[in-house]
Amino acid sequence: MAALDAFVPRAGRRYSEHRNFDYGPDDRTNISMLSPYLRHRMITEQEVIARVLAQHRFGDAEKFIQEVCWRTYWKGWLEMRPSVWTGYQTDIATLPRSAGYDAACAGRTGIDCFDAWTVELKQTGYLHNHARMWFASLWIFTLGLPWQLGADFFFHHLLDGDPASNTLSWRWVAGLQTAGKTYLAQADNIFKFTNGRFDPTAFAHSAGPPSEGPVAALPIKAAPPLPTGAVGLLLTEEDLNPESLDLGGMHITTVAALPAVANRAAAVTRFTTAALREALLRNAALLPTPAVMLDTADCDSLIAWAQTHQLKVIVTAYAPVGPASDRLAILAPALALADIILVPIRRAWDSAAWPHASKGFFAFKDKIPGLIGV
Ligand SMILES: Cc1cc2nc3c(=O)[nH]c(=O)nc-3n(C[C@H](O)[C@H](O)[C@H](O)COP(=O)(O)OP(=O)(O)OC[C@H]3O[C@@H](n4cnc5c(N)ncnc54)[C@H](O)[C@@H]3O)c2cc1C
């Protein structure tokens, strides 16, 4: 909330004019740095946009609002094409790790800017958006490494690591999101937008054509009806804002959180675990109900928690396509065998926005004023 308060006055024209500059880790005043909080919905897209519109005219803050909505768009896009996620998961499990891959991950490629971004990513859990684009472009087209392994490297280290924004941005750079359009980093662009911090020379000047056919979009499924009466609330790292969930006629009797998704950098696990604990504390301040962090994300600990509290229904904020949703897909049938149902609660924001992500962002962008009511 402090980061949001500090940034809101800067969300207008100043943001749109300066946002593309990567001044380095010591000066991030031209961007919001809100992504780790937005990614876990500790603050929601709607809340951030409402705060910005309270201080700026829509026309002045439009660029910032569009950037916030890119996250919503990517989530909706992936939600309609879950096979892109499962294909990517298979690829990262099976693709060989070459010596070139090891050198890239260690920041030992000899390309100054790339190696510096590798160190920055590992040390801070963050890279500027433009640096992410340059990094991904160098990874794919100069170093000749598979985009999937680069996306996985980012997901491992980014505090804001997001299944949709990360996977689909890497695909966008690789030329798989927009037909025939790859993103090729240019030396003069890096020089200009790093304010002369880097002046690279040796990298690719052409990008091979992307090799994937169109991916068919499935419709967004209707949200299930909300249960009523006594329920347990399960938090996942996908949505840590239980106080703004529409709970209708439900009565929460107990709250639990699934531990952070495993196998990421220690700093990411620490941040995500702290975010989960903070959501449990916030919730405990609002509701006088027991709130616990489960020891493991397996069926046994979830069922043990449910049985201790005699739960027949567990609700959870809808987890979009990604590791948390994969976990819930394993847990739900195991709960059902124990006569407990798991009901996802989808936010009105997602239900309204996601169906518009069937095409490119430009079509989605036109729907933004309607979504935010301006
Ligand atoms: C290869 C690549 C990988 C990326 N991986 C991730 C990721 O794992 N997680 C993630 O949150 N973002 C990812 N992004 C998007 C973007 O780089 C970050 O959201 C942004 O840099 C976060 O910094 P900020 O909060 O200061 O952004 P600001 O410029 O202040 O933007 C405000 C908010 O808008 C959203 N946003 C801005 N740009 C984008 C974008 N291009 N796509 C989606 N949302 C955006 C974020 O929530 C951000 O906090 C990736 C971009 C690229 C090119």
UniProtKB/TrEMBL annotation:
Its cofactor is FAD. The keyword ATP-binding does not apply. InterPro entries: Crypto/Photolyase_FAD-like_sf, Cryptochr/Photolyase_FAD-bd, Cryptochrome/DNA_photolyase_1. Pfam families: FAD_binding_7. Residues 64-193 form the Cryptochrome/DNA photolyase FAD-binding domain. It comes from Sphingomonas psychrolutea. This is Cryptochrome/DNA photolyase FAD-binding domain-containing protein. Keywords: FAD, Flavoprotein. It comes from the Bacteria.
